[in-house]
Each structure stands twice: as C-alpha cells, then as structure tokens.
Write a structure and sequence with these properties.
Number of strands of chain B: 15
Oligomer: heterodimer
Strand content of chain B: 5-15%
CATH architecture of the largest domain in chain B: 3-Layer(aba) Sandwich
Strand order of the largest sheet of chain A: 1-7-6-5-4-2-3
Largest sheet of chain B: 7 strands, mixed
CATH topology of the largest domain in chain A: Aspartate Aminotransferase, domain 2
CATH architecture of the largest domain in chain A: 3-Layer(aba) Sandwich
Radius of gyration of chain A: 26 Å
Helix content of chain A: 25-40%
Number of domains of chain A: 2
CATH class of the largest domain in chain A: Alpha Beta
CATH superfamily of the largest domain in chain B: Type I PLP-dependent aspartate aminotransferase-like (Major domain)
CATH class of the largest domain in chain B: Alpha Beta
Order of helices and strands of chain B: HHEHHHEHEHEEHEEEEEHHEEHEEEH
Strand content of chain A: 5-15%
CATH superfamily of the largest domain in chain A: Type I PLP-dependent aspartate aminotransferase-like (Major domain)
Shape of chain B: globular
CATH topology of the largest domain in chain B: Aspartate Aminotransferase, domain 2
Shape of chain A: globular
Largest sheet of chain A: 7 strands, mixed
Chain lengths: ~500, ~450
Amino acid sequence: MANATTAPKIVEPTVFDLSSPGRKGVSFPDPDVPRAKLPESMLRKDLPLPELAEVDVVRHYMHLSKFNYSVDGGYYPLGSCTMKYNPKINEDTCRLPGFLFTHPLQPIETVQGNLALMYQLQEWLKEISGFAAVTLQPAAGAHGEFTGVLIMRAYHKSRGDSKRVKMLIPDSAHGTNPASSGMIGLQVVQIPSDARGNVDLKALKEQCDDTVVGMMLTNPNTLGLFDEHIEEVIKLVHDCGGLMYGDGANLNALLGIVRPGDLGFDVMHFNLHKTFSVPHGGGGPGSGPVGVVAHLADFLPEPLVGILEEATDDEPPLFGFIKPAKSIGRMKAFHGHFGGGHVRAFTYIAMHGPDGLKDISQYAVLNANYLLARLRKTYHVPFDRICMHEFVAEGQFAGSDVRALDIAKRLMDYNFHPPTNYFPLIVHEALMIEPTETENKDTLDAFADALIKIADEAKTQPDLLHNAPSTTQFGRMDEVKAARELVLCCWLPEDYAEKV
Amino acid sequence: MTYIPISPKERDAMLATIGVKTLDDLFKDVPARHRFPKLDLPPALTEMEAAAELADIAASNENVRGDLISFLGAGMYNHYIPSVVDHVLRRGEFYTAYTPYQPEISQGTLQAIFEYQSLMAALTGMEVSNASHYDGATAAAEAVNMAWAQFRGKRKKVVISPTVHPQYRAVIRTYTQGMELELAGDDPNADLGSGPEALMSLIDDNTMLLIVQYPDFFGRIYDYTKLIAGAHGKGALVCVVANPTALALFKTPGEMDADIVVGDGQPLGIPMWYGGPSLGFFTTKKSYVHKMAGRLVGETVDSRGQRAYVLTLTAREQHIKRERATSNICTNQGLLALASAVYMSLLGKSGMRQVAELCYHKAHYAAEQLSKIKGMELCFREPFFHEFALCLDRPAKDVNAHLLEHGILGGYDLGQDYPSLKNNLLIAVTEMNTKEEIDSLVEVLSEVDHG
C-alpha cells in the first residue's frame, strides 16, 4: 500500500487533460441566414467539452492507436472470434459516396443500388446456408440470436402452443445464448456434453418434451468440434415439436462444407464480422443477419428487401421493402448495418465465389488441425479428435501453479495476441485457439514454437509467466481497483474539484 | 481472389503433419449426404472487377452530396464530418482489433472508449455512460431492460410519449414482447399538441419508466423538469431520448433530473450510410450503474504504476451471468464510439455549439420562409431545434414527388405514422443546407402553390 498516495504515471493524457481554453480543432462558416432568436430559458449554460487543435487530436489518437494489438499488426488467434485478415478493398467500397451519403428514408426509387445490394446479399446468404429467407436487420450476433429466439417464440404462439417455455442449451454454449433466452423469460435448461465433446444424447432425450421451445446449438461447437450425431440431435428436438437454433458464430468452418439448413436447422444467425471479413472495430459494429426455413419466414422482423416489380425486357426489377405477414416487429431503427456490414460482406462474397468460399473453410480447418498436431504433445487437449476451425487446450501443467492466464500474458512477450481463455467453461484453464485461414505456415510454426517454449518456461522459470507481459507498454491491470473505485469518466481540469 | 497465404507445397506438408492425405479428409464428421454442397453463386471477381462493380452499384443511388439537396431527417441527419475522423478510423490498429479483453495490448481502444464515455456524460449532463449500444432505438429498449432490473419486475408499466420516434417505439414493442408489460401512451392517435404534462395522467404506482424525446419527433423543445419531478413523485424512472447535436445548445436532460439519457450518436461524426451502423448512447446516474447493460470502461493502474483502463463491472454481463444478465448485449459499437469521440474532441466546446446554432438558425429561416407560402403553415407553435412539422393543403406524397423532380429530397411524410398528421411534412435543416438550398426549396414549393 506504499503506493496508495502516489499519483499514477500518465502515459497518454486524455483529451480532457490536453484541453487548453481557446484552441480550435475545426471551424464552420458563419450563418448565411439571419440569426433567429434563441429561447433563453432553455439554453445550456456550460458545455464542459475539451478545446484542442487539429494536430493535438491527430497526435493523441495516433498515440492511442500504437497501444493496440491488431490483425493488421500481428497474429490474433482468438477462439470463437474469427480474427481473419480484413481485405483493404472493403474499406474503400463501403465508403463510396453512394453508400455513405444516402439517407435510410429516401424514396426507394433513389436508392435502388442499396436495395439491389441488400437483396443480393440476402440471396447469397440463403444459398450459402440453405435457408429459405434471410433478414439483414440484426446489428450483431447477439442481436441476431435475440431475433431468432423471438421468432421461435412467435411461431409456437401462432399455433396456440403456449406451454413451451424451455430452451435447451449445451454447457459449451456462448453466454449470449442463455442471455438471449432469458431476455424473453424462457427457462434455460443446460444439456451436458459427452466424452467426445458432442451433445449428450441421453441427457437431451430426457429433456425433450412438449414444453421445449427449441434448442440453441453452436455447430461446430465452442470446442471446435462438429457434432458427430448432429442429425440425431436435430431429430430429437424436432420430434418433440421444438425448433433448432444454430448459432452461426462458427460458420467460418462450414462455407461450402455443409449448409446448416440442409442439416435441419430452422433458424441461424450469421456473424458478418467473423465469417465475412467485416472488421471487428475494437468491439463493433458487427452485423448479425438471420436465416430461417420456409415455415418461419413470415415471422422475420420487418422490413425485408424484396422485388416489388419484376424485371422486364427493358427495365431492371424494382426493389423495395416488404413486411412479413406475422412479423415479430422491428429489431432496430432503419435497415441494419448497411454501410459497415452489408457492403463489406457483399464485396467479400463477390470476390470469393463458390470455390473461394470453400477454400476459406478448408484452410481454416487445415490451420487449426495443424496447430493442434503441433501442440497436442505439450498441452493437454481434453477432447482430442480432428477439429474444425478451432480447438481448446488446457493451459495448466501438473505440479505447476502456472495458469492459462499466465500463458496468455506471456504470449504477448512473444508478440502474439493470446487465444481466448477461460472459455468454454467445460474445459479447465481453457485456451481456445482459432488460427483462421489467413495465416501462413511460418506464423503458425512461430506461434506453436512460442507456446512450446512457454510450456518449458512454466517448469523452469514460472515467474516469467506470473509477471508477464514484460515487453509491452502496459503491464497487468489492477482490476479490483477499477471495480471498487469505479472511475468511469474524466473531466476538464477545472471541473475536477466539484466532480471528485 | 483469395487471401489465403499458403502454397500447395506448404499445404501438403501441413496435411502430412496432421496425418491425413487431403483437405477433404478433415471433414469426415460432416454427414456424407450433405457434405460439400455445390453453391450456386457467381464466380469470383478480382479486386479490380469488384471495385468497378461496387462503384456501379453505389453510383446508381442518388446521394445527398451531389445528386440531391436533402431536407430529410427523422432520426438520421446529414452533418459535416471533418476529415480527421475517418483518418483516425482507417488506422488498422483501431479497426482490426477485437473487443479489448486483453487490456495490456488494448489500451488504445480502452482509453478511446473511456474518453467517449466522458464526452458523452458531459454532453448529456449525466454522471456515467456505457461504451454504447447498437443504435438509439435499441438503447431506448435497453432503458426498459434497466428499469425492469431496477424494480426486479415488480412494476410492469412503461409510459411512452407518442412523440418518441415511431421506429424507436416499434423496437421497444419488439424487445418487450416476452416481458408482459403494459405500454401506455404509445398511441399515434393521441393529441399531439397537448404538451408533455398530459402524460402525467398515465403515470401511476405501477409505472417503472417514462420515456420522452428531446427534441421530440417533431423537433419541439420542451423543458421536462416538471414532468420528470412528477414521475419521480410516483417512484418511476425517466428516460429521455435526446438528439446529441441539440444538447450542445439546450439545457441538458441531466439538468432536468432525467435518470437515463439515450439517443443515436449518428450526428456525431458518423455517416448516414443508408441507416447504419451508427451507435446508441446510454448515460445514467452513477447509482444505477450496476443495473446498466453494455460494456463499461473504468480507470485503474497497471503493475508498473501507470494510469490505464479496463473493462469493468463485467459480472453484470452475459458471459458471466448468462440467463440472469440484464441484457444479452455482447459488443458495443466500438469503432463508431471512437468516431464520436474524435468528432467531439475536434469540435470541442465551441465547434459543437457552432454546429447546433447553425442548425437552429437555418431551420428557423426555412420555417419562416416556408410558412409564408399560401396553403402551408407550421403545425406547432412550440420552440423547435432543427426540425419542424409543416402542414400542407395537399398530400405530402405529391409534394415530395414534385420536389424530387427538382432534385430535392423533401421531408418525412408524417401521415405514415400519425393519422392526424396526414398532409404533414417533417423538415430537417442542418449546417449542410445553404441559404441557396433553402431558398430553392421555398421556390419549388411556391410553384406547387401556383400549380
């Protein structure tokens, strides 16, 4: 506690710290119309925002950017996040003026390009997934899940089947699955995994009855394994009247490999920011379209993009919006993440075609299995069989107090981003590794070499791991202090006295 | 085009290490009858071809920076975005990073979000902000979730002003369909001229949340202080849906004692992008922070005594709490929160106020000129910001069609949502509209009058 009163060292001041009264970052023209009278009693007295020059702002954010690890900067094998390379052309296409500067409420005749692109993307996603209809409206994966769960609920309700309250979710699922179900008051029933990482069929059978809304399944699951009994699992759920929800988080393993709709899934969300190269943006924006089978199409959120007038010999079709007959409603304002999501994904799919998409999944799976082959002698892999696009190892060693967290932090010293750790919950000290298809063999070898070396360090020099990272600008964080003191804002220097 | 950096020779070496012969051998768990479907998709384009095709698609739209003069708003606004904003956004260090789960190598994103939170709290006059939601409408729906959590489901009524954006109200209806709530006030046939105090009669001891909009959907500015005090008297929370540009000029919802302020951050340096992505901001009082959904960044120190930032209070979130979480939200709108932080930092105290005043003066000039035209008048007399409802003596649809023939994107047709406002247009004016543009709008509409 000797440091309790020492002020922390400031590596980069905040924009509030940097403020100096009277500086200007941008000017706007004087009004070219007469000034109107402002309603005095309603005016704001003080606007406590910083005052900076343009160069101050540019340097500040340039400095901040250097504190970030990124896919452009290095290898980012974060399990379940599909941190693939984001093609640069996407950044150009999504910024074309025709996309950037169109208003969502413009008459459809003036935005046929946007609508044609959205329609085509809906069609392509249908073809890739084997579903009958797709909505592009959901903003992210979790938003797509919520959309899907609402559709499942609405379907049962429309049939007068009101006793269905249970959602079956495997113990390996993402936290968003139970949270999405919880948001509409469903009862979540956890289904265990069997010894080979599949859904435990016996446990599933016991839960399948006429109170089941459906099952939410990620396949391949978060262990990176394709369920060996997938068709039986789906049949069990269907036989009791339930619907099968597919969490599309791991779709990067399935392009041109198998279509979830063909397997019997009824609803699935896509993560355009994982599978289709929309950059993750430091945590969004994502884009989470949802596909459904024909008998659920009427429940999709409004609006969908459709053809209002078929093409003729002289004219292209007229695209516009349609409202599904029994729509669950609107999931967000306007039409989804068009510019940042749909345009980039469209560009990506157009540039891959059917064979290119299959290559993506084949090489994503190749890379994961290659790393698994190189690491399985050093790290225990509890569900060890041919994996799909990712696998989960244990980050612990017999007789050592080194944990997955230490291994993750030590990887930073080797200039790698760590894998996802402590997820899925069913593997102790989990290290979830997803290489993606956009890494070459040299990178994978260097990463495997680093992990093997770290395993050795864990035995010989464990403090190297406990104290890692040591080569980065920042060391480990005092997370308890953050949660206890809850400093969630900063202010202008002159305002500190009254705020703190 | 492929982005796979593995040669056939390397591939074969890797397959040998794995112990299989071909790539196809890796997929034996996939049921054979469904394995390797032939996808009916167009053949791959090269980058050169894709760039040309996308440029063609984009060019077939009529945009508001060259093709059309726009007076369309209704929740998304054509503002100037200084060049710096996109230069920062285009840095790969920001846009190709993931959610900052590893704070040692994510301080760029974390500090930027912390600054965004600080700027947003200052702008709305509130104590804390989260790291953002998908958009203004979903942020409003998350306010309902927060109120639900605050009262542990014991209060079941939400009062929504009919002058909240129609799409926001629609999203709240969608989000709450499993919650067995009573939504009161959400009635497009309500008297839209009766003022906010009329909502008081709907607020009772079962009301968990009141939602109003500021400026309201018709651009009107009300001081909600009394209404908020009244709602608090019944024990209810109050959420104000706010336009962030307006907050640089007008009394903040914080000064009115609002409990939650939400809205769409698009006016703060985010392009319209045909409706998205933008961001939903969410600010509140510190006492509600544990019930708030969404990511939250807090200040701390690292092991070397340096000031640093981390995701905090994560125990509220879905990956820990699973089905007991307030919300299933996973991401925020990270990159767009960065855009807004850059925008607000750059404009600062004076620039933000300048933009708001430009919008105000130009909108009032437009309103004054338009209301001189025979058969047109302002629908409401209350003070307004940069949007106003214009009553016409003929269908809004016809007027808009006529404007479009002259290259003008007219206002939003209010009859779509409010039966009593048939023949009404919602006109938005921003700093982007020159006097010349406003005069040509007036001129073309005067022609309608004579025609």
